[in-house]
Each structure stands twice: as C-alpha cells, then as structure tokens.
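=== Per-residue structure ===
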Amino acid sequence: MPVIFNQEAILAVKAGSGVFVQTLLDDKTTSNDNVRLQRWRITPGGSMPVIVADTDLTWVQVLEGEVDLIGTQGNNELSNVHLVVLPPSYSGTLTSKHGAILLHAEVPDAARFDPVFAIKPPPFGCVDWTEEPVLNAEHDARKRIYFITPKMFGTKALAGELIIYPPGTEASNHHHEGAEHFQYIIKGSGTVFSNEEPHLIRADDVIYNYERERHYFSCNDEEMLFVEFFVPGEFKTVWADNAPICTWLPTGKNIKGGAPVRNIAAHSSETVIKPADI
C-alpha cells in the first residue's frame, strides 16, 4: 500500500536559525532508505546550512518565496520556479529575506542506483522549470515538464518532473517496475487510485508508491499540479489491460508560451531507457 499523508500531520522541528524542518520521508516512513524528503520553512531572515555527503545526491526545490543559496558553487537566487541539484561534497547556506518554503531531498549512497555516480557524479545545476519544454499527453489533457533527467545531470540514480492536470483530467491505470517514486501535491485536489482503491488528495500531500503498485490520478474542478521523483531514474512503466500507452508530444513551447531552452521529441512512457534527448 502507498504511504499517503499531508505535511500538516508531521511535527516541525526547529533547526538552523529561524528554520523549521518536517521529515516527510525516510527509512521509518517507507521501510527503506531509497530517498529522504524534508519540508523546510525558513522564516524571514532565517538561514539553514546545506551540506551534502560525498556519497549522496541532493536537490532542493522552492515551493514558496525566495531564497539565496551561497556556497561552493557560487551565489544563486532561487524562487518558486527553481530546482537545484547539489553535487556530492557541496557546502553552502540557504537564507531568505522574506521567508520561504522548500523541499529538501536526498538519495543516500546514490551509487546503489547508478554505478557511474561514484566515478562521475552529477554537476551542480539550477533548473527554471518555466523555461523547460512542455509536453502534452496524447490521450488526455495532462502536461509534463522534465527537470531532472539523465541527459540534464548525467546520472541514472534519479528522475524528476512536474505534471499538470487541467480540471477534470484523469490518467490511465499503470505501475512501474525497477523504481519507487513519490509525488508532492503543490496545487489543487483530486483522487489517487492505488491498486484501484481511491484516496482523496489535496495540496501539500505526499504520496509514496512502492514498486509495482498500480496507480493513477483524477483531478477535481481546479487545476492540479504536482512534482514526482523516481529512484532510480530508469524504469519500465506497465499499463493496465486496455489502457492506452501514454505518448508525450512536444509543444515546442515552454509553460509561458515562449521558446524552450531545449527540444524533446515525442516518446512513450513505456520504454525502460530514457530517450537520448531527455
């Protein structure tokens, strides 16, 4: 069964200077240590050190507000359109003048999922997802924006994307082989069906799916937006009997309607290996 809960159910613990941390996913929550996820709330003027172990893969996504990340890879101003991947041995500090909320996640011992990781770890990288290409689902109204892929960061340990469900959208039943993954609902509400059992979901819910659990989403009367991350980043998607295989079609645009920073060709969600342009 999936792990489903809202961040409100998790106690916030003070950490750093003016920072409150909620541990959403760890080995106690999921019975494994594939991924660790925390929600950080930085109060106005607060700061939080960010230190990455030399074996880990870490990323930070801003949900609300603005932060400054100052560290071994220079200074970066981040807002709610940014996700930043931090390489092993990274050291820095997050500060916020007016306050911010963000997700801090890590894959411990990432070489478990990508043997090349220890030899050639991913570089530091900052993604503005509003500049990335938008892909449309062939059989429904969903939109997908990739922001962590093997091509972008050179590792198979992790994959991440943002999914947008227009009002009333419903996807097809499916499961994944070779990876576990989680979603964090940023906006909207709806229903997630896990092994055909419905669960109501809303903003700030976390959904952790174990390998081979059948699942799909249905959106209510408002747009639903969530991020999802897979560990490892290469896996196979298997669709339920008579369910259409999802093909993602390029729009040639970013979410703002302009030219994207790169191009991605049409591709199927069924393939095990990511296409070379992803």
Q: What stands out?
A: The chain has two domains: 3-128, 130-268. The CA atoms of residues 51 and 91 lie 5 Å apart. The mean pLDDT is 96.
